[in-house]
Write a structure and sequence with these properties.
heterodimer, A: 397 residues, mainly alpha, three-stranded antiparallel β-sheet, 17 helices, 47% helix, B: 152 residues, alpha+beta, 21% strand
Chain lengths: 397, 152
């Protein structure tokens, strides 16, 4: 047997060197490719053996200049742009933007349009959280949940595509409602873009499958010994620190703060339904995982209630052909699957906004990373990073 | 007290049960999925309906539509009348390498000249070939599906 034998070393105690063993700090560079398929992020870690001394995220590789671009695009064109900020939840990105512009214009959105918005928002949230439930175990080395969750996420995406025409970039919201017609011509104008026939029943079926896959992953992963070892007590964010860093969404709720903009703000009729805001207790990776799992179930419940209650009626308020937003400024925030998504729009009365400031959830959630990873072990970097569930398109914009 | 089943056994059970089930995936190039009628795959052009008004080209967020036209003198509709000029389409091209598939052009067209089609198999090895001229765009008209029925 080769290797270090402690009993041998004891015999040579006279020759023992009193100098402590030291390893020089090593700088470890993760990325800038996809370190765990969230986008292009580079992490510069200073490690002492297995321990992270200091870590610095280098961002900006995916910067596309959307805030500047929005200054030279009309409002309907910006709706198509904001889809691409957080690409796994395109529909949710639109909501806050159109609501902000509608409030400036003083538009009242018809009830049916609001319900369609709400149903699609929650379905996008389900698809985004299912992606987390599939990719997070994958990052910890379990490949099966990926296959299970993506299988049923596809059902949800197919339904979104059936309504909007796009799986990821729906571009379905218009100022004053949802997309009213296929085209502006005399023939196409008659083709209203209401929900296609069978959508409500198909959604009910898909929701059953979503709950099924949640239970499947729950049984496979939630109680798994390896998963417990990797996530419980790892990457603990105390509630006060989470609020200090501006962490929002499921990451904040994982730390035990029951704060959900769907309850606080009134951008969509969430008050009509009976649902709960799940929250964790410890604030570790495991709690953040559980919160997302529970949020999928709550979203399913909201969607099912909304389908039963959906009113009929027009899809759009009366909007002028050339959309000009009156002078003023406004900040509207909405609950994205990742956290708080807000738009500060300054308008000077033209067809294009003067300035659009985007507050995206992932950027603030990522800012806690250097604090959180200080003192963590190298194998935990990916476990902690993955549990924050950020998308680099949302960070860099 | 509930008996805890070790994760390994659970995992193996999932493997076994999945092995015996039918796969959910489609063997793509051989079998094809039928896409929803509203899917935004490619934009088809109805040449006869286009009046060269340039609205689509102006509203396009990334200016990937190229339109050229000229005025043509039309004979007067009744004898002794004034000769009219009519805009005629020379070139209509969409650069699909630039297009972001937002559908604004289809929406703003006031004359029903543009339609969405779910066809999507037009990838090219050369980026220049992604520029579809009007003949190719008109060809896509064959693939435009009937719009779906609506939820009551």
């Amino acid at each position: 047997m080769t290797g270090f034998d402690p009993t041998l070393a004891m015999h040579h105690s006279e020759t023992q060197v009193s100098v402590e063993l030291q390893t020089p700090d090593m700088t470890l560079n993760l990325g800038p490719q996809h370190p765990s398929t969230h986008g292009v992020l580079r992490l510069v870690a200073k490690v002492d053996g297995e321990k992270v001394e200091e870590i610095e995220p280098v961002i900006g590789y995916m910067h596309r200049g959307y805030e500047k671009l929005a200054e030279v695009r009309t409002y309907p064109q910006i709706t198509a742009l904001v889809n691409r900020i957080d690409w796994v939840s395109g529909f949710c990105n639109e909501i806050a933007f159109v609501t902000a512009a509608e409030r400036l214009m003083g538009l009242e959105v018809p009830g049916r349009a609001q319900y369609i918005r709400l149903i699609l928002t929650e379905m996008t949230r389900i698809s985004s959280h299912l992606l987390f439930l599939s990719s997070y175990p994958l990052e910890l080395g379990a490949a099966t949940p990926m296959m299970l969750a993506v299988r049923d996420r596809e059902r949800v995406l197919d339904l979104i595509e059936g309504v909007t025409g796009g799986r990821f970039h729906p571009n379905f919201n218009r100022l004053g409602g949802v997309k009213p017609a296929a085209g502006g011509g005399a023939t196409q104008k008659k083709l209203a873009q209401d929900l296609p026939a069978g959508f409500l029943q198909d959604t009910r079926d898909a929701m059953v499958h979503v709950l099924g896959v949640c239970d499947e992953i729950d049984g496979l992963i939630t109680g798994n010994e390896i998963f417990w070892e990797r996530t419980r007590g790892v990457g603990v964010i105390p509630a006060d620190k989470a609020m200090e860093f501006g962490v929002s969404g499921p990451n904040l709720r994982g730390s035990g703060v029951r704060f959900d903009l769907r309850k606080v703000e009134d951008y969509l009729p969430y008050g009509d339904f009976d649902w709960e805001v799940p929250a964790g207790t410890e604030g570790d990776c495991y709690d953040r995982y559980l919160v997302r799992m529970e949020e999928v179930r709550q979203s399913v419940s909201i969607v099912l209630q909304a389908i039963d209650k959906i009113p009929s009626g027009p899809l759009q308020a009366k909007v002028p052909r050339v959309i000009k937003v009156p002078t003023g400024e406004i900040y509207v925030r909405a609950e994205n699957p990742k956290g708080e998504m807000g738009y500060h729009i300054v308008s000077q009365g033209g067809r294009v906004p003067y300035r659009v400031k985007i507050r995206s959830a992932s950027y603030s959630n990522l800012s806690i990373l250097p604090w959180l990873l200080k003192g963590a072990l190298v194998p935990d970097i990916i476990a902690i990073m993955g549990s924050l569930d950020f998308v680099l398109g949302d960070v860099d914009r | 007290m509930r008996l805890r089943i070790p994760g390994v056994i659970k995992g193996m059970w999932v493997t076994l049960s999945t092995m015996l089930r039918k796969p959910v995936t489609v063997n793509y190039p051989l079998e094809k999925e039928v896409l929803v009628p509203r899917a935004r795959g490619v934009i088809a052009l109805d040449i006869d309906n286009c009046t060269v008004c340039m609205l689509c080209a102006r509203e396009c967020p990334d200016w990937c539509i190229y339109i050229e036209g000229h005025k043509e003198e039309q004979p007067p509709s009744k004898p002794g009348g004034r000769p009219r000029t009519r805009a005629t389409l020379d070139r209509f091209a969409i650069d699909y390498a630039l297009c972001m598939y937002c559908g604004i052009c289809v929406e703003v067209c006031p004359f029903d000249a543009l339609y969405w089609s779910p066809s999507h198999e037009y990838s090219e090895g050369d980026i220049g070939a992604m520029l579809h001229e009007k003949e190719r765009l008109a060809d896509w008209m064959k693939t435009v599906p009937e719009p779906p029925d609506l939820e009551a």
